[in-house]
Design a protein that fits this description.
This protein is mainly alpha-helical and about 675 residues long. The longest helix has 30 residues, at about 65-95.
Length: about 675
């Protein structure tokens, strides 16, 4: 077993990994495969963690408490300081919605569950990722989850089989995890990218390098190092973010890093030079700070300014250096100051619980709770928008119990925009959250033409098509179940009542020019359930489209069916765009997109609705006259937002649709 000595090659590999990630994030065109730098980090972490645990087991001196505490002391202080700095910066610059999001992401980051959160929210490479100031902490979460589980597993198998057999168990686990990763990357790349089971092989491979050292002579060691460098550098240069990752391709940089480790050249020019060593020293703090710096640049829309991007890279190095010397190397976090070298396990735990890292986490939590409980600290902004949240910030007051509790059937009936009724409905609204936000406008229009009430069947993220379900939702919230129950009630109890269908259709299909916005939304479709692989996007779109059309045609056999065409969507939260200009004392132009971009974004959805009209006789309702002119579609009017966020109308905005609905119902 190797002794626990400082290795310059590891420090040099850290430098290669962090520089690659920074260059990629600030401008992917400069280093297309730079994101693979994280894979290099994983190999290094696995090597070092295996060394700490196995060396302790071999010497019969391993302490689980000290292991966890050493990891906390290494990771938490710098992360907590970054989070507190971002909360302070956000107070002066972030709109309430963005500030709430930041607080929520901070909570997930310091509890090391952010990888799960970001997997659930979206893909790593999509446009929305630039608005997440702590997106990069997903890798810290993966590592911390590995730190928690790995020593427990090694302790368990060491007690049963001993150290010699433990080596082969790690090899087998590495192979199995790699096979799972390759399969899952084809099936669900976001899951494979973010979650530990599909990344564990990269970490454990570092352990394999440690446990199976190669007896290499100088020449062979150099050759192995050069092969590893070629593999790593070619990956960084030639692999692109639109490739399936991490699958079989990830083996190139991962095994390249493993080869450099196995070569064990502590005097290599490539990894032992002074520049690599200095960057390697600050690599953790540098990694922490670089993405928030770029996210701030993106937030203020300077990402295409090369000079500002270069200044951002320089600022990352400055902030990373300050964090390294001011936090990582501070006496407050040194082992001797905390004095946990007590032989009694309970004393170790007690000392750890009152340690500086734990106290810092508590401070961060208190700050984030304040931000979240104050709705993003709206008191910072004295404005009509935030003084009237029921109009601009929240969903319709009368519909929430129907929308949020869609499994509790039957739902309530809206008489108009202000009250409920127990009368039999003469109109049915069905769809996802986009249906919910227009419900009061529709109810008012229905009342204006003499209608008694609108029955709601709405559930967020549900297309309301039987035999299609969102596999990211828990079984008790299964969209297919909701759709079946709803349509059964509609067909049996309200056989002639007209139906209006409202959905964010593009959410349910993979639209090529929208990157992987919908990649995380997987379906099981048809009478014979199947999961679609990423390569089967076209087939998945066809199957879901056909199921949607079948549902529409079945409804139109007995009644009129209306479908609201898509409402405009914006690249950023409309309220937050307006709030940002208020915070920064800037002029407030209207938030808008071009009419051309609206049609481009909705090409697939509009073509599908035309089929519903021609094949099934559905009647289409066009919202554009209320929200667009001949050139643009608007997210605000006279400085007031028409949308709650990027795509959901607010109560102020949905009233613009009342005349549109009224005309359709007459």
């Amino acid at each position: 077993m190797e002794q626990l000595l400082f290795r310059k090659d590891i420090n040099g590999l850290r430098a290669i990994g962090v520089v690659a990630v920074i260059v990629f994030h600030f401008n992917a065109a400069w280093l297309p495969g730079g994101f693979a730098g994280v894979d290099i980090f994983f190999v290094l972490s696995g090597y070092l963690m295996t060394k700490m645990v196995v060396s302790g087991l071999a010497n019969k001196s391993f302490s689980l408490t000290r292991f966890y505490f050493s990891r906390a002391r290494r990771i938490i202080p710098a992360l907590a300081m970054l989070c507190l700095a971002l909360l302070l910066l956000g107070w002066f610059t972030l709109a309430p919605g963005d500030y709430q999001t930041l607080a929520r992401h901070i909570e997930k980051s310091v509890t090391f569950t952010s990888n799960v959160t970001y997997f659930q929210e979206s893909g790593y490479f999509d446009l929305a990722s630039h608005k997440k100031w702590l997106l990069h902490t997903w890798s810290l979460s993966v590592e911390w989850q590995f730190y928690l589980l790995y020593p427990l597993v090694l302790l368990f198998f060491n007690r049963i089989f001993g150290l010699k057999s433990l080596r082969w168990i790690i090899v087998i686990a590495t192979i199995v995890s790699f096979m799972f990763a390759v399969f899952k990357t084809h099936q669900n790349p976001s899951m494979s990218f973010f979650l530990l089971p599909y990344r564990a092989w990269e970490l454990m491979l570092g352990g394999v390098v440690l446990l199976f050292p190669l007896p290499l002579k100088t020449h062979a060691s150099k050759c192995l190092e050069y092969l590893g460098l070629i593999a790593v550098l070619s990956s960084l240069i030639f692999i692109k973010s639109n490739y399936l990752w991490p699958g079989a391709l990830a083996a190139i940089p991962v095994f390249g890093a493993a080869a450099i480790l196995a070569a064990h050249r502590n005097n290599s020019f490539f990894t032992s030079n002074i520049v690599s060593q200095k960057i390697g020293d600050i690599s953790y703090s540098l990694y922490l700070w670089h993405w928030p710096v770029y996210a701030v640049i993106y937030y203020f829309l300077y990402q295409n300014n090369v000079l500002i991007v270069l200044l951002g890279i320089a600022a990352s190095f400055v902030l990373g250096t300050l964090s390294y010397y001011g936090v990582e190397k501070s006496f407050l976090f040194k082992k001797s100051f905390l004095n946990i070298n007590t032989p009694h396990p309970l004393k170790e735990v007690a000392v750890a619980c009152v340690s500086v890292p734990v106290l810092m986490i508590l401070v961060v939590f208190c700050a984030t709770k304040f931000v979240r409980n104050s709705n993003g600290a709206t008191s910072r902004i004295d404005n009509y928008i935030f003084d009237n949240p029921h109009l601009f910030l929240k969903a319709p007051a009368l519909s929430w119990q129907c929308h949020e509790n869609a499994m509790e059937l039957p739902q309530c009936v809206l008489a108009d925009a202000k009250s409920l009724t127990k009368d039999q409905p003469d109109l049915i609204l069905m769809g996802d959250s986009h249906a919910d936000v227009v419900s009061t406008a529709l109810a008012q229009a229905n009342a204006n033409v003499g209608g008694k009430g609108v029955l709601l069947f709405t559930k967020g993220g549900c297309l309301f098509v039987p035999d299609i379900r969102n596999t990211n939702k828990p079984q008790d919230e299964d969209c297919s179940t909701v759709a079946k129950k709803s349509i059964e009630i509609i067909q049996q109890k309200h056989p002639k009542t007209p139906v209006i269908l409202v959905n964010r259709l593009n959410y349910y299909f993979i639209v090529p020019h929208k990157d992987d916005r919908a990649m995380h939304f997987a379906f099981i479709a048809g009478k014979q359930p199947r999961n679609y692989l990423v390569e089967e996007i076209d087939q998945a779109n066809r199957d879901v489209s056909n199921a949607f059309l079948d549902m529409i045609c079945s409804l139109t056999e007995q009644r009129d069916v209306y479908i609201l065409k898509p409402t405009p969507e914006f690249s950023q939260n409309v309220v937050d765009q307006i709030a940002k200009t208020i915070l920064l004392n800037e002029a407030r132009p209207e938030v808008d997109i071009t009419l051309e971009s609206y049609y481009q974004d909705n090409t697939f959805a509009l073509a599908l609705l035309e089929q519903a009209e021609s094949r099934c006789g559905a009647k289409l309702i066009d919202p554009l006259p209320a929200l667009c002119d001949s050139d643009k579609c608007y997210g605000s009017k006279n400085g007031l937002p028409l949308f709650q966020n990027e795509s959901h109308l607010n109560e102020y905005g949905n009233k613009l649709l009342t005349p549109i609905f009224e005309k359709a119902l007459q």
